[in-house]
Amino acid sequence: MASRQTFACYTMALLFSAAVASAQLSTDFYDETCTDALDIIESAVRAAVSKESRMGASLLRLHFHDCFVNGCDGSVLLDDAPGFTGEKTAKPNKNSLRGFEVVDDIKAQLEDACKQTVSCADILAVAARDSVVALGGPTWDVELGRRDSTTASLDDANNDLPAPTFNLSDLIKAFSKKGLNANDMIALSGGHTIGQARCVNFRGRLYSETNLDASLASSLKPRCPSSTGTGDDNTSPLDPSTSYVFDNFYYKNLLRNKGLLHSDQQLFSGGSADAQTTAYASDMARFFDDFRGAMVKMGGIGVVTGSSGQVRVNCRKAN
Questions:
Q1: Neighbouring-strand partners of residue 198
Q2: Tens digit of pLDDT for each residue in 175-194?
Q3: Are the C-beta atoms of residues 262 and 192 closer than 8 Å to each other?
Q4: Average pLDDT of the chain to the nearest whole number
Q5: Burial of 208 (0-12, 13-18, 19+ CB in 10 A)
Q6: Do residues 143 and 25 make contact, with C-beta atoms less than 8 angstroms apart?
Q7: 299 secondary structure, DSSP code
Q8: Chain segment 192-201, per-residue pLDDT in tens
Q9: Which of 2, 78, 163, 207 has the CA that lies 20 to 30 A from 96?
Q10: Is 192 marked active-site?
Q11: Alpha-carbon distances of 274 from 187, 232, 264, 269, 298, rounded to whole Å
């Protein structure tokens, strides 16, 4: 009985700690310590997206891949070093994640403005929001105050990030493990209204699945041959209709069997996600509302706050 009581107390302590950590995030966290922080990030993101529209999707994806692996702690930004292997070479990230130089530039500007004050994890959260806005999407108030981790996990990156081959039940389960429900998952998947996917991630759907629009399939095959190893890194838009505009065409495409990834089309394949996908396809305002709420929720996953963690001077390595 004593051991059960001890375990119960320990569990309650963990839940309390998590609640306290979440409560420590606030939208005005840098109002006094780094007054220009949000303006610096926004300006840098707009410049980067203006230079290359695809960068908006890349910065959004960095935040997602950070939060899904041991929480939103900037771990995805850590470079490999002697005796340390980070997350960048994990299968979902290798030859795929982009935008690290943009984050480096933002961090350098913030260090000049207010030394060792704004965390790399917070940079990712704000840059994701500003990227969506720069491409015509909704805005939201980003809760701030995350600290940076001093380590990363290759294994967790390989295991926790949803795969493009996932079925609907796999997607729901993967998001549930992070405290996100099926509605959150469907809304967050709308981030695929911008960005691109590598041939290696949609080849199986292109050549093996029958519920892919024929005209889209024909247009994809020249850049994505059936032979493994040929054109693996060639990319195609996740949303072929409006590739660089954050809108609801991702969902419209799904209704026409134009989901590029197997996991995309699972949101409209005769399952429990069909109704919400259909609603988003006809009501962009509803999608925007749900997306902003889900992004705030995702941004609170496993955050490190207060005296825990650190504020890295260089986002690529621990202090």
A1: 235
A2: 999 999 999 999 999 999 99
A3: no
A4: 93
A5: exposed
A6: yes
A7: T
A8: 999 999 999 9
A9: 207
A10: no
A11: 12, 31, 12, 7, 22
